[in-house]
Amino acid sequence: MATLLAVLDPGDEIVLFEPFYENYGPDALIAGARLRHVRLDLADPTMPFDPDELRAAFGPKTRAIIVNTPHNPTGKVFTRSELEQIAALCLERDVLAITDEVYEHILYDGAAHVSLASLPGMAERTVTINSMSKTYSVTGWRVGWALACNDAITDGIRRAHDFLTVGAPAPLQEAGVTALHFPRDYYAGLGAFYQAKRDTMLGILTGIGFRCVVPRGAYYVMADFSGLSTADDVAFAGRMASEVGVAVVPGSSFGSDPSAGAPYVRFAFPKRPETLEEVRRRLGVLASGVLG
Q: How do the residues of the chain divide into helix, strand and coil, expressed in percent and rounded to 5?
């Protein structure tokens, strides 16, 4: 939010991959910007985007593109080749990249995280956003940072941030300094820790009849429930909470077009093993068609 307020003027446009983390849309609206969407193809395991659609999204009013990798809600990890396509357009059209990399250490199946700022010519035109929340399992602390090699941008971010939250609590910042000195093997173990949970959740969901988008990063699963119910995603999520006792997020929460998210709900799996087993037990009722 602070970055968008720092770099955008009313009427500017932002390019955004869809589905997207639901805060991006309201944040852009608060900053007075319009969104231009580029679809990720959830039917393909790599969740690609159309390069022509991406190029067409860059117009004369485009000021920035938001790139979230690893991606919430799909778990897509953008490849170096995809990021190079994005970088080329940013350089060609003089567009700023704002990257959300909070899941950078939560990776599966050999996926590699590439920071867009590391590509040639992008350090000066990228704002990299990161956080303690996911890497160190302290989501409630809301402690993070924005990095940019541009004094004017960082000055603007500081000014905006001061009137949003003033500052993160000092004891939590001290704890963050300690965490940032963890040894490298902590990060290597993090992916394995969450991959076991991912595999458990995928087994639960596919066993019930969900068709899952397999994540290569982050800790969410987008699941197509159309084989289990004819309800729309909002109604299905409501009944999941009230009748099954498992909370999910409707797929339409993550896009501009509610119909595009209609077959999907998002599960989160950063849970204790016993919690995941309870999810397995509760979801067992879906096999009887209780939410049909």
A: 45, 20, 40
Residues in contact with 41: Cβ distance below 8 Å, sequence separation at least 6, in sequence order: 47, 48, 49, 50
The domain spans of the chain are: 2-179, 194-288
Among the listed residues 256, 260, 240, the one whose alpha carbon sits nearest the alpha carbon of residue 248: 240
Q: How confident is the model at residue 153 (pLDDT cuts 50, 70, 90)?
A: very high
> Distance between CA atoms of 51 and 39, rounded to whole angstroms?
10
Domain spanning 194-288 has what CATH number? 3.90.1150.10
Pick the closest to residue 271 from 254, 246, 249 (CA basis): 246
pTM beyond 0.85: the answer is: yes
Q: What is the pLDDT of residues 47-91, one digit of tens each?
A: 999 999 999 999 999 999 999 999 999 999 999 999 999 999 999
Alpha-carbon span 31 to 217, nearest angstrom:
29
d(CA 256, CA 75): 19
Which secondary structure element, helix H or strand E, spans residue 213, and what is its range?
strand 211-213
Note the residue count of the chain. 292
Distance CA 69, CA 63 (A): 20
Indicate the burial class of 188 (C-beta count within 10 angstroms; 0-12, 13-18, 19 or more).
Answer: exposed
Strands 62-68 and 13-18: parallel
**Could you give the CA distance from residue 3 to residue 30 in angstroms, rounded to a whole number?**
12
What CATH fold (topology level) applies to the domain 2-179? Aspartate Aminotransferase; domain 2 (3.40.640)
94-125 residue pLDDT tens: 999 999 999 999 999 999 999 999 999 999 99
Q: DSSP 3-state assignment of 126? A: strand
Q: Is 76 exposed, middle or buried (0-12, 13-18, 19+ CB in 10 A)?
A: buried
